[in-house]
Design a protein that fits this description.
The structure is a single chain. The chain is built from no helices and 2 strands. With 61 residues, it is mostly beta strands. A two-stranded antiparallel ribbon has the order 1-2. The radius of gyration is 12 Å and the shape is globular.
Amino acid sequence: MSEEIEEYAPEVCCHCGGLGCLYCNKKGTVMVPQPSQKCRHCGGDCCIYCGYTGWERPLKE
C-alpha cells in the first residue's frame, strides 16, 4: 500500500499577522498542508478549530 505524503509549507499566522504569538510559537508562520486553505469554520478569523492560526489543519509543532 502506498501512502500519500502531505506536503507542508509555511503560511503567515492570521492571529498575529506574522509578528509572532503563542499560537505560532513566536515564529509568525505555521506549517499548513498544501494547497493551503483558510479555516472552514472561521474563514481565517481564528477559532478553536484552527488553533487560532486561521488555517485548515495546521501542523502541531
